[in-house]
Amino acid sequence: MSAVETNIQSETVVPPQTATPSNVAKMRGRDVCVFYGEKQALFDVNIDIMEREVTALIGPSGCGKSTFLRCLNRMNDVVDICRVTGDITLDSQDIYDRAVDVVHLRARVGMVFQKPNPFPKSIYENIAYGPRIHGLTRNKAELDEIVETSLQKAGLWKEVKDRLDSPGTGLSGGQQQRLCIARAIAVAPEVILMDEPCSALDPIATAKIEDLIHELRENYTIAIVTHSMQQAARVSQKTAFFHLGNLVEYGETEQIFTNPKDERTQGYITGRFG
Amino acid sequence: MSVSMLLAVVLICAAVFYVLGNRRAIGVSGGDSRQLHSRPNYYGILAALWFAIPAIAVIVVWQVLQGHFLEGGIVDSLPPDVLERSADQVRLVVATIKSLAFGGIASGVEPYMLESAAGYRSAHGFSQTLMSIMSLALGLLVAGTTVARITPQTRARNGVERIVKAMLIACASLAILTTAGIVLSMLFETINFFKTVPLSNFFFSTEWDPRFSSAGRDGGDTGQFGMIPLMVGTMYVAFVAMLVAVPIGLLAAMYLAEYATPKFRATAKPMLEILAGIPTVVYGFFALVTVGPFLRDTGDIMGLDIDARSVMTAGIVMGIMIIPFISSLSDDVITQVPRSLREGSLGLGATKSETIRKVIFPAALPGIVGSILLAASRAIGETMIVVMAAGVAANLSGNPFEPMTTVTVKIVNQLTGDNEFTSPQTLVAFALGMTLFVITLGLNIFALHIVRKYREQYD
Ligand SMILES: Nc1ncnc2c1ncn2[C@@H]1O[C@H](COP(=O)(O)OP(=O)(O)O)[C@@H](O)[C@H]1O
Ligand SMILES: [Mg+2]
Fold first, then answer.
1. Which residues pair with residue A58 across a beta bridge?
2. Taking the complete model, does pTM exceed 0.80, yes or no?
3. Is the Cβ–Cβ distance between A225 and A43 less than 8 Å?
4. For A133, which of B261, B354, B458 is closest by C-beta distance?
């Protein structure tokens, strides 16, 4: 499939679901508390991450945004001292249930990190990594196909198609971050978590990622942590405002930014603190 | 004044100049040290360095040259009939006189020697006094000028920086020159060796049998110096050792770095490192009384005839010895792989072991290969374990359960033998050392090349 064809396709063939978000909660958090050792980092967070929408998590540094995001695919399991209570569900199934395979969960709920972290391998190998470990392909041709479509979806194909064998670490910061997004897409996740994906990027690279998020929303449920109020307003449908480990306010992005109910939210979005 | 006394005096003077420089700087600044280019103590350090460096330089140069001139003086004082003797004998006489001069006991003392010794003694004393005066005078001159020239604009900080840099360069060059010196001296003795023994005898003969006699001198048989059995023994033992150490060391490193709790790691790692601190003779002992007999008894049960002293015994014990080189260093490089790579992999749904194998291990590869190389060179150079566990008999065999010996063992053997230094029986040690050196160097270069080609570089 050539790059030109893809462009035409994405403009003409609109997936049927996009017109209206499905109004179903893809992930749900109920009374989520997180402790690092003795210290409690999150207090009774209740939130619904709606399917095929972008949910923005905003709030001052250290308020627990990353902590919450990392609960959603159990990346906190890696931190020895971290303890999570409450319920978090994916498609109504408790992800902290014993029956859930965390490896499988992370394939369904992918993650993009604050600092681009491509593997020190070739661009091709970076994308092929996930499909390989999950056995998603039967042969090389299928793998090539996944690599190409993932890079296309991440808007990187045109820039790298002639140098798939060169190292991913040799790309620019923005390209690296899109490579990481492509890498996450390659395992066909249902939810993509992004932790300040643009904080290390320049404005042009940031704009590209934001456009990408718009496109990805058609097929994926996205939760994004961001420090930039404008970014949250531009890319998200729902916004959650965290403060000192509490979820202060959660609602339609437009409502949060034009008519916040809580004065702490008001204070934060107007830049009075944070 | 003796040299050590003189050095002490130089240091004391340098300390005095430190104080002088310091004071002078404060003086010229009018008591306000903010007017100075550098902090006052830098002026002190500069003055002290400019005292110590010239003074010590004089001492070093003097000591190097003095021996030559004083010996010349002794030779001049010898009676003509002594001078007619052979060069070796004259050297012996000179040595005797020198030892006599400082109250040593010597045999074959003749009256003219006592006379020369007295002359030598006074010349030596004079020379030392002159050296002390020159050294201190030069130091005073240079440091005095430095102190006198201090103005608030003097860039003492930059000056100290330059001297420090020069000293660092000097130390680095010293290390390099020492290496070069060692290699060169080995090279010359090796060339001497090959003057009496043909290259083909050394490199291609499979028979090691250097006769312990002066046979070479009498024009008779010089013995067989085939290094192949020794080299094969070295490689064989090292290979068995690596076979033991690499898998165990690497897996232990991965466990410590990725799975173990911090508490367990904090106790287990130092305990593993203790293995490297045990003297090798203790390992040899362990091989001799435990591993060797164990292998032999196991062989008996299975109906095999296994020697208690064998390549296997030495290799296994040596492997245990070098485990910490691999595990400890590899653990360090594995933990240095950035956390973000780990999380990236885990976030894609990879398991821990997949992450280690496919992301962390390749990223840590250069360091891991480095640790393996270090372990390999330890294995190749190890002597004591081989002597005790594999014997000293040169033997060419493919059977790991037979005794063999290694290059290093034979080097010790030949150098501690009762041979003249110039005999091929002794010189062969240098040829062996040189060959081993070239081989390990080649191994290192090869490994570096491999690493450069396959490494996955993270920034
Ligand atoms: N690995 C950890 N160990 C201990 N405390 C942590 C750890 N990670 C985060 N925290 C604490 O949890 C709180 C929330 O952190 P985080 O979720 O990273 O904030 P945010 O992403 O909103 O800036 C902070 O007070 C932080 O100190
Ligand atoms: Mg954060």
1. A241
2. no
3. no
4. B354
Phi and psi torsions of B382, nearest 5°: -70, 135
Distance between CA B14 and CA B355 in Å, rounded? 59
Alpha-carbon gap, residue A172 to A204, rounded angstroms = 12
3-state SS class at A110: strand
Name every chain B residue with its beta carbon within 8 A of the beta carbon of A119.
Answer: 341, 344-345, 359, 363, 456
CB B436 within 8 A of CB B380: yes
Q: Rounded CA gap, B41 and B19, in Å?
A: 8
Architecture category of domain B224-454 in CATH:
Orthogonal Bundle (1.10)
Distance from CA of B446 to the nearest CA of A (A): 23
Q: Are A160 and A188 in contact (CB under 8 A)?
A: no
> Which amino acid is located at B400 in the chain?
P
- Reference A147, options A107, A190, A175, A182; nearest CA is A182
Helix (H, G, I), strand (E, B) or coil at A63: coil
Tens digit of each residue's pLDDT (9 = 90 or more) over A147-175: 999 999 898 999 999 999 999 999 999 99
Q: What is the ipTM of this complex?
A: 0.86
Specify the residue for token string 């490689």: B235
Residues 22-81 of A with CB under 8 A from B: 73, 75, 78, 80
Selecting from B261, B344, B456 the residue whose C-beta is nearest the C-beta of A117 gives B344
Beta bridge partners of A28: A48, A89
Estimate to the nearest angstrom the gap between the alpha carbon of B50 and the chain centroid. 32
The string of pLDDT tens digits covering residues A229-254 is 899 999 999 999 999 999 999 999 99
Give the number of whichever ligand sits closest to the CA of residue A36.
1
The dihedrals phi and psi of A247, each to the nearest 5 degrees, come to: -85, 105
> Residue B422 is encoded by which pair of tokens?
């110039």
Cβ contact B73:B119 at 8 Å = yes
Give contacts of B345 with chain A, Cβ < 8 Å: 119, 129
The torsion angles phi and psi of A13, rounded to 5 degrees, stand at -85, 95
